[in-house]
Amino acid sequence: MLDATTNRDAPPVILEVSGLNKVYQASNGPVEALRSVDLTVRKGEFICLLGASGCGKSTLLRIIAGFEEATQGSVGVYGCEVRGPGPDRGMVFQDYALFPWLTVRQNIGFGPSHRRVASQEVDKLTDRFMAMVGLTAFADRYPHQLSGGMKQRVAIARVLANDADILLMDEPFGALDALTRAALQEELIEIWRTTKLTVIFVTHSVEEAVLLADRVVVMSSSPGRIDQDVEIELPRPRDVASVEFNRLRRSITQQLTSHVGGGRKVAATADS
Amino acid sequence: MSFESTVAGPAMTAPPTKKPAALARGSAHRANGLWPRLRTIALALVVPVSLLVLWDLMVRWTGTRLIPSPFGVAVMMWDFAFGGIYDDAYSGSLPIHFWKSVQRVYGGFILAALLGIPLGLMLGRIPLLRAMLDPMLSLLRPIPVTAWLPLSMIFFGLGPKSAVFLVFLGAFYPILLNTVFGVKSVDARLFEAAGMLGCSGPQLFRSVVLPAALPSIFNGLRLGASFAWILIVVGEMTGVPEGLGAVIMDGRTLSRTDLVITGMIIIGITGFLSDRILVMLSNYFLRWSPQHHA
C-alpha cells in the first residue's frame, strides 16, 4: 500500500478526494452510492478503479470530472476545489461522445479552438496528437466513418490536445473487441509514458487493472466504498502469462468475490 | 409535452417520389450507372401518368363541362406562361404572379425561421424561458391559421403584408417545435464532453446545441416551407390582385377551372422544387450524418 507521507521524493499530490458521500434520491427512497471515499493521487500515477457494476466507481469518476456533485466531501485538484467540469480533467467516455458533425481533425482541435488558440497553433497540436494515435490518414473522416477503436483514439487525442492534467477514463475499452482492446491498452501505456499524464481508469476487468495500473483501487458496493488499495509493482511491459501477474490477479479477484456474495464467480472476472 | 406532439409530422412532407428513390438507391450502390437512375424516374412517373390518363378518360366518358381535360389545362398553362392563345387578362402573366407569391412565401418563411430557430434553441435549453412561454405557445398553436385571417386584415390591412403574416404563422410553429425537440434530444454526453474540453456558456449554443439540433431543425424547415406554400392561397385571399393564390381565387369566381387547376399544378411543382432545395441544403449541412440523408 502506498504511504505517501514517508516517501520524501514522491511526486506532488495532484488529486485529493476526501470524505466523499453521494446519496441519490430515488423514487423508493435515498440510495447511498458512495460512502466516505478518500483517495489521494500523485502526479503521473496510473490508477485503476476496479469493481463490479453498481459499486459506484463510475459515480466517483463523474464526481471527480465535475459532472455530478457530491452530497458531502470534497474533490481538489492541486488544492483547488472542483466545482464543475474543467479542461484540467479530460474525460474519455465508454461511448466515445465524439461530436458527430466534426471531422477527426476538428474533434481533436475542439478544446484548443475554444480557448482562442491561434488556428495555426491548433493545427500543429492536432497534427501532433493525430500522429500520436495513428490517425493522420483519417484526418477528414467523420466519426460515423470510423471503427470503435479509431473513435476511442480520437477521444483520447481530443483530451491530450486540450492539455489536460488528469485523464479520466470510464471503461473506455469496454465496447471494443478483445484484439482492439489489447492494442489500445498498449497504446495507452505508451501515451502515458511519453506524456507523463495522470490517469484514473475505471474498469470491471481485473486483468485490465493489473495490466495497466500502478495502483488498483478495489471498490465494493452497497454502499460504494474503497475496499483496498493495491500497489502493482510488476515491471513494465507486463506479461499477462507470468506467474506473478496471475498471482496478483487471483488475489484481487478473491478480494472482489468475497464481497459479491461468498465465493461466487463475479462478472468482474468473466471477461478477463 | 406539448412540444413533442407535432414533431411526428416530418415523414408526411416527404414528396411522393421519395419511396422509389430510396428503394432504388440500394441498387444504385451496386450498379451506379444510368439504368438505376432511369428506373427511379420511371417508377416515380407510373402513378402520375396513370392519373392523367384516368382523368382524361373520365372527362371524355362523363362529358362534363365543369372540368377541363388534361390537354385543356396544358393549353391554359402554356397561355398562362407565354401567352398567345387566349390573349386575356391571364395570358403570359405567370412570371408576375409567380414572383409575387414566391416573395410572400419566402418572406413569411424566412421570418419564421429567423424567429423560430433562435427561440427554439433557447426554449430547449433554458427551463425558465420554457416555463414562461410554453403554456402561451401551446394555447395559441391549435388556432387554425385561417382563423387569424380577419384579425390579420385588421392588423396589416388588405394586401401582401397580411399574406406574409399568415404564411409566417403557418411556418413558425413547425420550425419552432422541431428546433425545441432537436435541442432537447441532444445527447447529454455531448454537453459533458464540451464541458470537460472547456466549452461553456454561450459558446455551447454555436458549437454544440445548434449543430446537434440541425437534423431536427431541417425537418422543421421542410415542414414549415410546405405549410408556407399551403397557406399562400389563404394569404392571397386577403384581396391582393396578384399571386398564384389570387389567380386560383379569381379562377373560382370566374368558373375557369382550367385556371384553377393550372394554379394548383404550379404551386405543387414550385413547392416540390423548393422542398428539393431544402433537401439539398440539408444533405450538405448534414453530410456527417448518413441517416439524415434524404
Please give a structural write-up:
- The complex is a heterodimer of chains A (272) and B (294).
- Chain A is α/β, with parallel strands linked by helices.
- Chain A has 9 helices and 10 strands.
- Chain A has a domain at 10-88 and 200-266: Rossmann fold.
- Chain A has helices at residues 57-65, 104-108, 110-113, 119-132, 148-161, 178-195, 206-212, 243-257, 267-270, and strands at 13-26, 29-42, 46-50, 72-77, 80-81, 89-92, 166-170, 198-203, 215-220, 225-231.
- In chain A, the strands form 2 sheets. In chain A, strands 6-7-8-3-9-10 form a 6-stranded mixed sheet, sandwiched between helices. Chain A has a 4-stranded antiparallel sheet with strand order 2-1-4-5, with helices on one face.
- In chain A, strand 4 and strand 5 form a beta hairpin.
- In chain A, helix 4 crosses helix 5 (148-161) and helix 7 packs across helix 8.
- Chain B is globular.
- Chain B has 294 residues and is mainly alpha-helical.
- The chains are: A alpha/beta (272), B mainly alpha (294).
- The interface between A and B is medium-sized, with 29 and 22 residues.
Descriptive keywords:
heterodimer, A: 272 residues, alpha/beta, Rossmann fold, 6-stranded mixed sheet, 9 helices, 10 strands, disordered C terminus, B: 294 residues, mainly alpha, MetI-like fold, 2 domains, 0% strand
Helices and strands, with pairings:
The complex is a heterodimer of chains A (272) and B (294).
Chain A: E1 13-26, E2 29-42, E3 46-50, H1 57-65, E4 72-77, E5 80-81, E6 89-92, H2 104-108, H3 110-113, H4 119-132, H5 148-161, E7 166-170, H6 178-195, E8 198-203, H7 206-212, E9 215-220, E10 225-231, H8 243-257, H9 267-270
Parallel strand pairs in A: 3-8, 3-9, 6-7, 7-8
Antiparallel strand pairs in A: 1-2, 1-4, 4-5, 9-10
Chain B: H1 18-31, H2 34-62, H3 70-82, H4 94-125, H5 127-140, H6 149-156, H7 160-184, H8 188-196, H9 202-235, H10 244-253, H11 257-285
Helix pairs in contact in B: 1-2, 3-11, 4-5, 4-7, 4-9, 4-10, 6-7, 7-9, 9-10, 9-11, 10-11
